[in-house]
Amino acid sequence: MTEAKRKVLSPSYLKTFNCIASACENSCCIGFNIRIDPETFSKYKVENDPVIRKLFEENIYIIRSSTAKQDYITINPTKDYRCPFLTEEKLCFLQCRKGEQYLSEICASFPCIGNIFNGVLEKSATLACPEAARLALLQTEAMDLIEVEEPDDTRNFVYNLLNTEDEIFQNKPAKHLSELREFTWSILKDRRYHLDDRVVFLGAFMEEVDRLEKVSAVDRIPDLILSYTALFTDASAMKDITTIPVSPVPRISLFLPPAIRVILPSIESDRYLRCFSKFLEGIRFYASTSYTQVGKCYEEAYQRYYSPFMREHDYILENYLLNYVFIKLFPYDLNGNSVYYSYLLLAVNYALLKMQLVGISAYQQELTVDTAIMVIQSYTKAVEHKYPILHNLIQALKQNHLDSLAHITVFVKD
Ligand code: SF4
Fold first, then answer.
1. Ligand 1 atom with minimal separation from the 128 CA
2. Residue ranges of domains in the chain
């Protein structure tokens, strides 16, 4: 009998992914609150093994909320933020004892995240996993999308299930999400322009999409895509973006202080805290140094280390963004925010990552592939994954009127 299969769309790097388990330098069993899906919890409730039963009683909690719908079940991490089922050898006790099928959906699937978009299962990996980050970021062709087949009974953690024909999207940009995603993909992949310029151009486009939504004209999105595609291929029109004069000083004085205020108190990971401290030290961001002096350090590091490294490895941040937009169904926002808000999240992530890479290169007096992976992976796990942190940063920018495209351009463009 032939095994039933289903089609999956995924970036090519996923084909070669294998968890490196005990050899992993930043295991997913450390630093996350792990939720358990109701189906797995039903299995756990009738567990007979007295050792496992006791562990469950001590470590699994139901978090009650005011609406029963939002109740959830979680594994309480230890004081040092480890999963209590993680052994000394950095292996999962439950998996060793009962097999992979016994794990919750997220534990069995991590780092893969699924979305069902217009009936098609899309799968990619979060770069919070170091091994996935290496595969996704260090190969030029890693983000080529391929169609593969998997057995029908493969367990997946499905984050989003979205159909653009759904009635609720009739007056929303999500009605044209297929076209918006395709357009985003083509802009971010087009290496004729510097990645900074591609990000700024995408912002100009998303601002227009937002405007169309406000005047109830989302059906003009396909035309808007056509006109922006023509603009993008016209190098003279793109000069409005490519020749914008830049300086790191306004970025450091306007963007960095709110970013530090929001991010620093939220950091729970030592690994990321070390990266963040090196970044600030690298650009000499001290109370006693002026923004002009910090800007000078930044500029020197940018020219001496960051820029030559990125000339050779420009695909690293490009792949980061492509993976980001694929996994998040960008510019869709699960929380119902506008497409421009989704864009702000993307741009702020990009700006923060760039600044940290520049700062760390100043600290280490070099930028290497290993450092780039460590910064991107630890940032993804400690900040990008924790939606409230970036949401609060965007609110802080909004309150100070720093969320316009003109400001974002200053924050992302070197
Ligand atoms: S983070 Fe990735 S490589 Fe490390 S243990 Fe988890 S799935 Fe495996």
1. 1
2. 5-162, 185-412
